[in-house]
Amino acid sequence: MTTSTGRLEAIWVKRAKRAPMDPKTRVRAVAGRGLEGNADQKPDRQVTLLSADQWDEVRRELGAELDPRLRRANLLVRGVDLRRSRGKTLRIGGCRITIHGETRPCRLLEDAHPGLQKALDPDWRAGAYGEILDDAEIAVGDEVLWEAG
User: Fold this and answer.
1) Average confidence score pLDDT of the chain
2) Calpha distance 82→89 (Å, rounded)
3) Buried b / exposed e along 32-67 (16+ C-beta atoms within 10 A)
4) Rounded to an integer, what distance in angstroms lies between the CA atom of residue 29 and that of residue 132?
5) Element (H, E) at 117
6) What domains sit in the chain, N to C, each tagged with a CATH number?
7) Contact at 8 Å (CB) between 64 and 113?
8) pLDDT tier at 46, thresholds 50, 70, 90
9) What is the pTM of this model?
10) What is the mean pLDDT of residues 29-40?
11) 3-state percent breakdown (helix, strand, coil) of the chain, nearest 5
């Protein structure tokens, strides 16, 4: 696990199941619930994160300009390694998120672009999911870093 500092590059909120991902410049994170206004608020899967660095690798491999919104994650982070982060705590601005697992790529990604599901399959490339620990507003541009421990 690297100790580098990253940045929050994008925020998306889904109004309803299978609804479009609405871009936001800031959003309220609610401890134990998820992102305010987001349809998916399960106990251990309150927020999903995608690495912009890994998304860039996938785009290069596929030779395509793909919008990261296709992945349908809530938060796009750059400069932090999400791989094998289960049990770690990530801080975004004033909000801590405990990572509970790897987000697995689904068939819908293949429908969005041929080869995308397979390209996102290895090494946590499809991202991670977790639980929000703090009530806080987070915004694009916020610092992202792993908590010590």
Assistant:
1) 94
2) 11
3) ebbbeebebbeeeebbbbbbbebbeebbeeeeeebe
4) 7
5) helix 116-120
6) 5-146 (2.40.33.20)
7) yes
8) very high
9) 0.94
10) 93
11) 15, 35, 45
